Amino acid sequence: MIVPMSANTTPRRFMPASCMIDCNGAQLRAHSRGQVTVVEVTGDIDATNIDRFYDYVNRFVGQAPGLILDLRGVDFICVRAISILMRINDDCRAAGTRWAIVGGPFVRRLLHLGDPGETLPTADSGRQALNRIAIQNHTRQAAS
């Protein structure tokens, strides 16, 4: 269960060593890995928890230079997740957060169908995601 945040809460300034919630059939856990926040999700992402999934992930956007959304443990993901992932992509871009999605079979299939232009940054493994974020960082530094 997610504890509601008050209007005075500033979640983007706090990163616990590990933060886990149970969310209507999905378990979401965030932890720090160097300068990257890793959000691991297991279970089902569906209409009952997609908004809380977004809220949970979004609270970590901008807290660290990098964000990995590890969805390898997701057993089901609803179609609306495409628009939510696009929204997270926009949030990360606005905050200057480099990020990548690591997806399992269900997520990869949804992305293949729902993101044919490959707008979303994906990776096949956690290591590849870290490398992708490092390359994005190098590219931004070279452009500055």
UniProtKB/TrEMBL annotation:
Signal peptide (from-to): none
**CDD domains linked to this entry:** STAS_anti-anti-sigma_factors (cd07043)
User: What domain of life?
Assistant: Bacteria
Query: Which GO MF terms does the UniProt record name?
Result: anti-sigma factor antagonist activity
In this chain the STAS domain maps to: 26-103
Give the matching SUPFAM superfamilies.
SpoIIaa-like (SSF52091)
- Tell me the PANTHER family matching this sequence: ANTI-SIGMA FACTOR ANTAGONIST TM_1081-RELATED, ANTI-SIGMA FACTOR ANTAGONIST TM_1081-RELATED-RELATED
Q: What is the protein name for this chain?
A: STAS domain-containing protein
Source organism per UniProt? Mycobacterium colombiense
